[in-house]
């Protein structure tokens, strides 16, 4: 320590290379990282001999790193501190070539406690030097009090040196450089001194330049390596490289960033299409990122909610991770909600795989059914023959059971799956003209003036309801009650489970032709041109809705509005609470034979062969379903489901229309005898099935039921 203090006080003193090496060995463990080396030749044998006289301690610390020895921070940069020669020991008898390596210190990081992004890995040689340095330290270790005093002296000397530098006392460039180097060694990269007792570079080995790792890619080649691609990308093998290529590349590297961009812009303008394509093939893959896989699951799912279901199915084929995300059950539940699908029905016909989202299966199934409805397939409808040549007057189906009533006094129960007639319900003595069905309970009304309650599974007649004095022409079932209307001008309210008549509603002046019951109010229409609103519990007629000028043939009641269709060609919308007429819908030219009301949208079928779509809140006609594909005869029946309108006609067809646009989609059923006597009398539709009752009035078409199942793909998989 005294030698170091003396060196700082004697400003400008010329020291020999041997003294510098010795002092460096006492003060530092020599852990500075060499940044660069310069080889030089020297023929001065006197200096070579002087270096050979160094102490064993100096020789131990002078071992080379990659063939060079690091320069001391306190050494002069104008001299050559370390010289290696293959002929040392000859005492300078022969002149030998001498190689000198000058290593500069530029990095402020400490190898033992690295800063910044540069990482260091000591080599085996460095570990050996660290061990030898550690032994020297152990031999010369001072007591704790002396070491503390020495640190205080060092701090005082450093402070004095800084003052002298500010006052211009360090006039010598060499002394000034030595002070700067000491600051780099004694302070971290932020300028703060290392904590006492934790001196840097003690006991650590030297670092080789090859151990440095560049953390941040700066060139395109570095980017390729960072992305895990080989540095040897595909090269153009059209021939040897052009002359002057390396000079051109060197010139490019010497330019600034804006100059390089300008040069690249000019270069691209001069490239042919194939050359630009080659550049794109090399560059584009390096900037592609699978951002979905990099995002947290919640954010990735949120992004996927913006995709259409068809795009989600395609995204699932990208990779395993995307497939896992695209199969998310909640994601597909949201897609089902957007399409108005509120019930998960994927396991209705088969068990869903645990690996597949149930809501996804539901969506796919509903989409397939919708496609089958709109576009159809090559399958022929299932034909159910019965009732001989009689007219099928009423049609119901529930689940997999179909019930048809005829003027042959019977009802038949059919399997919608096999098409077989399961049983024939006999007991009526007159033609069956109306029916209702809930689950396996069937209620029928006949010209024999009775109603019968049947168990469709067993075929048993549970109750026979007597009371009407003429044909039972219409009925409506709600819950455990059924309301029947008769040509005897009365309505009766029956308890289905007991078969008891609970209430009789009288007030019409002619036959009751149609009835609706929502569980609270009864609405009836008759041949007396009137519509009546009843309270069935008190048997009081609350309102008589007068306005039609002819028989009322059809009714709809949703609890808010009453809609009536008449032979006078008009349709009227009523308020059942006040009895007032809200709208009169005009446009049809004949009898409105059937209507369907849902969500304030009314669809009406008329004997004028047209179908109209109305908004009953405004009274506006939204669409008239006609055109070149319209019906050629009277519309006999209507069904309204899945945003589709189904209409049957005396022309022997069942047509499918788009409710939103009013466009004709296709003919779902077309009888061979259409136009020559074939008639479709009744139709009933669910989400997956359509049942049609067809025949003829002149014998050209035998009486039958046609069953179309639009969920056959699902059932076919189950059967297979």
- Low-confidence stretches are 25-143, 165-174, 180-192, 194-214, 347-354
Order the strands across the largest sheet as they lie in space. Answer: 4-35-34-33
Helix count equals 18
Q: What would the average pLDDT be, to the nearest integer?
A: 75
Distance between the termini: 95 Å
User: The CATH topology of the domain at 395-633, please?
Assistant: Methylamine Dehydrogenase, Chain H
What is the level 1 CATH name of the domain at 395-633?
A: Mainly Beta
CATH architecture of the domain at 395-633: 7 Propeller
Give the tally of β-strands. 35
Q: Bin the strand percentage.
A: 25-35%
Describe the structure.
The protein is of the alpha+beta class. Among the domains are: 292-341 and 356-375, Monooxygenase (Up-down Bundle); 395-633, YVTN repeat-like/Quinoprotein amine dehydrogenase (Methylamine Dehydrogenase, Chain H). Helix content is 26%, strand content 28%. The strands form nine sheets. Strands 4-35-34-33 form a four-stranded antiparallel β-sheet, with no helix packed on it. Strands 5-6-7-8 form a four-stranded antiparallel β-sheet, with no helix packed on it. The longest helix has 23 residues, at 144-166. The model is unreliable at 25-143, 165-174, 180-192, 194-214 and 347-354 (pLDDT under 50).
